[in-house]
Structure prediction request, 225 residues.
Amino acid sequence: MNRPTPSDPRRLVKSASLALVATAAGAAALGVAAWLLDRRSPDLPVGDFFRDLSSTGNVPPLTGAASQLGLALWAAAAAVAGYNALRHARLGGRPAVARFLAATGVLSAALLLDDMFLVHEELAYPAVGLGERSVLGLFVLAAAALFVVYRRFILSGPALPVLLTACVCFAVMLGVDRVQEQISNQNLRYLLEDGMKFFGIVAWLTWVVLTCLRLDQPPPDADPR
Prediction:
């Protein structure tokens, strides 16, 4: 039985030195950034970029809890798909699987950024002149392209009902958003719109995980050796 050999002390010292240098460089960069902001934009509330939402907005800690958890689930989906894409690309043999998972991870990351920074609602129009419907349409087209190009991996998987559940949840969310002025009960509107969005994200992450687990198995006609 092979026992683990003790680490080389010189390697530990080198690693610790690199960590200290990286930390010092990061602290110096933040200090320079703070100085430049004080010089150029003294009225810019830098703390708003770093502090948590409850402290910045002076609201209860659980404000936006479902939204924050949804962001974490988007990030998990992007990370799971991205990690498995890199692993399949490194192993080789099934490049189409790596491309499919990479595209899934990129779409998940894009939806995460859109949800995190309200891109389609607030940032897209002043930045690039795209309205809310245009940005949402681009996301729909991107998802449709993913489903069409990689339909072999999607339609043959047992997790297809989970993906369809996510699509239905997002469709309900978008539909409620279009007619929200006609819903007098605000609690009902939030449950239908944001609640269905949250369940859609949960279903999307579940589909990503199940799909990665399935694609991790060799194809039925693969050589068992």
Remarks:
- The chain has ten helices and no strands.
- The chain has a mean pLDDT of 86.
